[in-house]
Amino acid sequence: MNARLYGVEGYLISLLKRSQTLSYYASSRGWGFVMAWAHRVAGLLLVVYVLFHIVTLTGLQEPARFSAKMAFLDNVFFAFLEWTLAVPVIFHALNGIRLILYELFGVRDEKRMLRWVFALSALYVCTLGLFMALGNQHISAGVFWLTTALAALLVTGGVCDRVWQTQNSLGWKLQRVSAAFLFPMVCGHMFFMHLNAKAGHDVNTILERMSGMGIRVIDFVFVVVIFFHAGFGLNTIIGDTVENNRLRTGIKMASCFVVLVFAYVGLRLVANI
Question: Which terminus, N or C, of the chain has the lesser number of Cβ atoms within 10 Å?
Answer without folding.
Answer: N
